[in-house]
């Protein structure tokens, strides 16, 4: 994933940029960057934040950075922002998303535009450099942004510092959000942010949420619409389920409130289907599993407890590092146990999702070894059957790494399964679906295991179903 933040003020913007970017740190753990423009030149700094928080890396540099216009980025992939001097002027670019036709675009830009790119380790090319090159194919930044949006297959939300202001552009189908905050207390200025909470403590108020493919131009004095929003939206549902911050709102729907609704929906589903378990406590797997568990406990009237508590001072989110062994180590080390709430207890554990299942299996084994009597699993979304091709959320070496895929292959006794074969396993409650879930249950060592239905999950968000991306679960665009 990743996060972006930009600001344009009638005074120095560095502190606002620093805090606004830092408030996106939950979305990535690899690199952080900031760039500011003072009217003459850019000052930029990028750091590796894999082992050190964003704030500590940049704190010592703030005094040296001056400017009224700035962009910042938290990234799990490439170093950002990038600064370029081009035929249409000096521009700074920061992006969030993924380019699926990267090779084709790179070859086209090299052949037709004589572009060149910085080749990083492993031969990778920075996606943001490709975006900047596409923008520079046109004679001005607005036309360039529209051109880039039309050429990119995948998802790409961007902030472009140019022409004395800030261009904010949401991706073609609105898979990631983008908000505009207006400076209060009579001060002049605006910010653009992926997270809607990131600017509230700095004296901004939300004044606008961009629609799909919409482009705005911000100065300290005003907002100008460059491109109108398109009608079709496919915003990522995992924003609410997992990686969105609890105090954020997307399309008017609060993250924390959605998770409560989701938990209540799972509790009702258990009652309706006769799968409700007799347990001593309902517990969430930190962090995002906790509000789902609160909703389940409130609906079922079963006491809520915290037998697993995350050690927050040092350990980051576990899905971010690319190395599987590092992810597993972090997942193990960051959770501490309250053994009094585990020994001889029947627990119903709720998590937002299961991708590969390796961390979950280790957790179940540890809880049983510490005296748990029964462990019932409830998952807030359906089984993940497809790897995300828009935001790199369900990162796997191959789709067959997903535990649901492995379960289907075990049930069918096949080493590969086609999309047509997978389709019958997506129907909630069907015989193939139940066989897949039972295989997952045995693999993870749960006493019982139930997944939330797709219908129940989408209803918990509260948006029209056609506006939500469900690709991870049913492979539908």
Give the structure's gist in a few sentences.
By secondary structure, the protein is α+β, with helices and mostly antiparallel strands.
Protein model, in words:
It contains 15 helices and 23 strands. The chain folds into two domains: about 1-230, Aminohydrolase, N-terminal nucleophile (Ntn) domain (Glutamine Phosphoribosylpyrophosphate, subunit 1, domain 1, 4-Layer Sandwich); about 255-475, Rossmann fold (3-Layer(aba) Sandwich), CATH 3.40.50.2020. By secondary structure, it is of the alpha+beta class. β15 (about 250) and β16 form a beta hairpin. Strands 3-2-4-1-10-9-11 form a seven-stranded antiparallel β-sheet.
Show the helix and strand layout:
Blueprint: E1 2-9, H1 14-22, E2 31-37, E3 42-48, H2 54-58, E4 69-75, E5 82-86, E6 89-99, H3 102-113, H4 127-135, H5 141-151, E7 154-162, E8 165-169, E9 179-183, E10 189-193, E11 204-209, E12 215-218, E13 223-227, E14 235-236, H6 238-243, E15 249-250, E16 253-254, H7 255-273, E17 281-284, H8 289-300, E18 308-310, H9 324-334, E19 335-337, E20 346-351, H10 358-369, E21 374-379, H11 403-412, H12 419-423, H13 431-444, E22 448-451, H14 454-461, E23 468-469, H15 471-474
Parallel strand pairs: 14-23, 17-20, 20-21, 21-22
Antiparallel strand pairs: 1-4, 1-10, 2-3, 2-4, 5-6, 6-7, 7-8, 8-12, 9-10, 9-11, 12-13, 15-16, 18-19
CATH-derived topology of the largest domain: Glutamine Phosphoribosylpyrophosphate, subunit 1, domain 1
How far do the termini sit from each other? Answer: 19 Å
Mean pLDDT: 93
Q: Mind summarizing the main beta sheet?
A: 7 strands, antiparallel
Q: How helix-rich are the residues, as a percent range?
A: 25-40%
Per DSSP, the total helix count is 15
Unreliable stretches covering 5 or more consecutive residues:
none
Largest beta sheet: strand ordering: 3-2-4-1-10-9-11
Query: What's the CATH first level of the largest domain?
Result: Alpha Beta
The CATH homologous superfamily name of the largest domain equals Aminohydrolase, N-terminal nucleophile (Ntn) domain
- So what's the overall shape? globular
What share of residues are in beta strands?
15-25%
Radius of gyration: 23 Å
CATH architectural category of the largest domain: 4-Layer Sandwich
How many independent structural domains? 2
Structural class: alpha+beta
Annotation, overall tally of beta strands: 23
């Amino acid at each position: 994933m990743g996060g972006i933040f930009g600001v344009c003020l009638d005074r120095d913007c560095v502190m606002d940029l620093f805090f606004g970017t830092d408030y996106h740190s939950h979305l990535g753990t690899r690199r952080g960057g900031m760039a500011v423009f003072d009217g003459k030149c850019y000052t930029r700094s990028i750091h590796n934040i894999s082992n050190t928080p964003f704030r500590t890396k940049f704190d010592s540099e703030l005094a040296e950075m001056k400017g009224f216009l700035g962009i910042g980025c938290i990234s799990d992939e490439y170093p950002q922002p990038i600064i370029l001097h081009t035929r249409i002027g000096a521009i700074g670019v920061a992006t969030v998303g993924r380019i699926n036709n990267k090779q084709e675009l790179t070859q086209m830009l090299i052949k037709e535009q004589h572009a060149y790119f910085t080749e990083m380790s492993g031969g990778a090319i920075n996606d943001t450099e490709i975006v900047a090159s596409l923008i520079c194919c046109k004679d001005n930044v607005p036309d360039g942004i529209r051109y880039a949006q039309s050429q990119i297959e995948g998802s790409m939300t961007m902030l472009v510092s140019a022409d004395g202001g800030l261009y904010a552009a949401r991706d073609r189908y609105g898979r990631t959000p983008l908000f505009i905050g207006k400076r209060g207390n009579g001060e002049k200025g605006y910010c653009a942010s992926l997270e809607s909470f990131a600017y509230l403590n700095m004296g901004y108020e939300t004044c606008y949420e961009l629609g799909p493919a919409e482009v705005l131009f911000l100065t300290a004095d005003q907002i100008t619409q460059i491109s109108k929003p398109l009608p079709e939206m496919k915003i990522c549902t995992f924003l609410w389920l997992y990686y969105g911050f609890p105090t954020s709102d997307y399309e008017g729907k609060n993250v924390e409130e959605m998770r409560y609704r989701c938990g209540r929906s799972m509790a009702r589903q258990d009652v309706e289907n006769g799968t409700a378990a007799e347990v001593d406590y309902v517990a969430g797997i930190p962090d995002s599993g906790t509000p789902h568990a609160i909703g389940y406990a409130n609906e079922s009237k079963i006491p809520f407890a915290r037998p697993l508590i995350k050690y927050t001072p040092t350990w980051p989110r576990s899905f971010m590092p690319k190395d599987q062994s590092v992810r597993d180590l972090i997942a193990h080390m960051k959770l501490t146990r309250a053994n009094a709430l585990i020994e001889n207890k029947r627990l119903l554990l709720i998590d937002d999702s299961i991708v590969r299942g390796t961390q979950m299996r280790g957790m179940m084994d540890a809880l049983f070894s510490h005296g748990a009597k029964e462990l019932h699993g409830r998952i807030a979304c359906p089984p993940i059957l497809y790897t995300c091709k828009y935001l790199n959320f369900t990162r796997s070496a191959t789709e067959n790494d997903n535990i649901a895929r492995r379960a289907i292959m075990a049930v069918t006794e096949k080493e590969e399964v086609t999309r047509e074969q997978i389709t019958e396993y997506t129907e909630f409650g069907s015989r193939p679906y139940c066989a897949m879930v039972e295989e997952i249950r045995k693999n993870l060592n749960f006493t019982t295991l139930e997944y939330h239905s797709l219908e129940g999950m989408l209803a918990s968000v509260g948006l029209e179903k056609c506006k939500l991306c469900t690709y991870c679960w049913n492979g539908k665009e």
